[in-house]
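Readers outside the structure-tokenisation community will struggle with the description of the input data as it stands. I therefore recommend that a typical entry be quoted early in the introduction. An entry of this sort, consisting of the sequence and the corresponding backbone structure tokens, reads as follows:
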Amino acid sequence: MMNYSSRPPEEPAVRAQDLTVVRGPRTVLRGLDFTVPRGQVTGLLGPSGCGKSTLMRAVVGTQAKVTGTLDVLGSPAGHPTLRTRIGYVTQAPSIYDDLSVRQNLDYFAAIADPGRAAADRRHENVTRAIADVDLTTHTDVLAGNLSGGQRSRVSLAVALLGTPELLVLDEPTVGLDPVLRRDLWQLFHAIAAERGATLLISSHVMDEAERCHRLLLMRAGEILADDTPDALRTRTGSETVEDAFLHLVDEATAAGGTKETTR
């Protein structure tokens, strides 16, 4: 049996030190220190307005006025070489209603991998991504005629084009029915297990925390915890991650409290 303890630790997919974002008079992220391990599903959990979306924009390099250190896949966040290595899904589906599912993916694939020589590769990537999100039977349906959950899956398929090393998904399951939420979480874990990709997934639904390998618990622009679900439950003597989160909030409030921030 391989002695895993003798292997050098792998550089995390994301490493932040003193990560701070100030927007106008408000400090949205407050000197965050955390890591996101490679090849795992890391949940970014916290109430709406705690700074999750701002943190994700910082990771993908689209957030202004970021200070501190933020390294992503071995490069500074926002470095041009990261563009094809990261897939990003925002809360609002970023697709064209007047194009079909395949036409949407063909369009984004051509932007990411242009040229006639790449045509076969683009076709394979588009077909695979559509199958990944279980929309093969809706390939020719206009995006504007899809349900909200299906539109979200098209956005996820766009992010999966080119098999990115890091997927950053901002509340991808919000508003979806329980069956579709379950299916998407199964897909997320398959992407991590079978492709070795890293997933950073935000949510304000605490039961989704139980589906993650590791958790970043946020409140008011601060990281309350960076640990596994089991370790958090053990550390706080709680039965669920939600109870652990509430315990940590009470601890933070007793220690001086924090001010609420914006998304």
